[in-house]
Amino acid sequence: MSEETSNSETDDMPPIQVMVVPVTPFQQNCSIIWDPQTMRGTVVDPGGDVEHVQEAIRKHDVKVEKIVLTHGHIDHIGGAADLAAALDVPVEGPHEADKPLIERVADQAAQFGVPEAKPVSPDRWMEDGDEVEIAGRTFEVLHCPGHSPGHLVFFDKELRFAISGDVLFAGSIGRTDLPLADHATLIKSIHERLLPLGDDVSFLPGHGQASTLGQERQTNPFLT
What we know:
Blueprint: E1 3-5, E2 17-23, E3 28-34, E4 40-44, H1 50-60, E5 63-68, H2 74-77, H3 80-87, E6 91-92, H4 99-103, H5 105-112, E7 131-134, E8 137-143, E9 152-156, E10 161-165, E11 168-169, E12 172-173, H6 183-194, E13 202-205, E14 211-212, H7 213-219
Parallel strand pairs: 4-5, 5-6, 10-13
Antiparallel strand pairs: 1-2, 2-3, 3-4, 7-8, 8-9, 9-10, 11-12, 13-14
């Protein structure tokens, strides 16, 4: 099952469209983001269930140009290698600090019972301050470690829209009981990198429903 949303409205059509395809037993928000005028698109965090992701791509006739990864946990990268091969597109991200996690994807698969996961070799590692093109738009790259050492968040300043991965959720934050995670570092990333973007910024997390930074600043029990 997939859920369609758009993060901005115009008089004609939204500048981008976002389809969320929950994948893996963790119901991770793999997202397909595209420009409705050109149909150029990007897949973010294809953690598994590649056939379902491909079905969604075909259904909407999206011309996928790349795969972008927020971080190296299996539920976000487990299907990236197979999808990249099937679509013949490059993989960009995450930060190179997550390379040890990616290299141990088989161990993650055994630990969490995620089948058919494969390690992926990104065509481009990204760093804080970089830019990445997603669906024909330029997103700023923010390095937000804590949930994982190389976690990235992608932010479209004009649309006031962020893809937050597992840094911040509606009513919660990313887990820090995993290898290479650190609670204090995650809280610092949220307070110093995300919240200053502005209360009006909407974000799509790696799991669950979308929210706004203002809503989380006021009500999230981990931030108040």
